[in-house]
Amino acid sequence: MTYLPEPPAATAAGQAANPLTDAVIQAAVDNAIEKARQHDTTPQVVIGTAPPVPQPGRPPMSSKATDDSVRMICFGGMTLFTCGGVSLVMVTSEFADPTAIGVFFGGLAVLALAIARLLRRAGQATPAEIHNHYDGTVYQDHSETHTSTRGVWAKTNNNP
Question: The domain containing residue 117 runs over which residues?
Fold first, then answer.
């Protein structure tokens, strides 16, 4: 550890400050700061033109390659579940019964068709986008209607 010199005593009344003492103090402070920087062990950020170094683990890939690999993993899982279902049907029926396998895959096909039809109808249910083009003065009414229904015999009052 660097020991700094003692600060000089306050100057007596009527005496001028010693500029040499101020220079010594400043040099000591600069020296202490420089030694602290030299003993600093934190890694410094290096900025340069060198390309990045690949890190251990999965190699760097483009976003398309990453998306494709995820699709392949999902397709493999889907295939595993489908084959598992077929083998479960075969085990429960105790032999490869074509009717049982047909019912299984027919159920999957009906489910897929039902979902596709549901999505198509949901697309048709959305209202069409309407664009109105007006010429001349247009008046827009921004009034609000407050509705209240009260009483045993309901009476609705619409107040603007």
Answer: 64-123
